[in-house]
Amino acid sequence: MYTTFHLKASEIDEELIKNIKSIFGKKNISITIEEDLDETAYLLSSSENRKKLKKSLDEAKTGNFIDVSIGKLK
Predict the structure, then answer these.
(1) What's the predicted TM-score (pTM) here?
(2) What span, in angstroms and rounded, lies between the C-alpha atoms of 52 and 59?
(3) What's the alpha-carbon Rg for the chain, to the nearest Å?
(4) What is the pLDDT of residues 30-56, one digit of tens each?
């Protein structure tokens, strides 16, 4: 089992520790801390991805897209 908390470093407090303890009890756990990436910055971080996103946005603006309902994906 795993749980992900997304928060600002300044929000780490005793309540967070209590929550972790209540979720995992006496189980052995590993705690890894990494900086959350801004999703937009990440998507635009490579030139190839920027080109694909721009092309997709341009196509959507001109109405050139495929409309798919969730029911059709099953």
Answers:
(1) 0.47
(2) 11
(3) 20
(4) 999 988 888 888 888 899 999 999 999
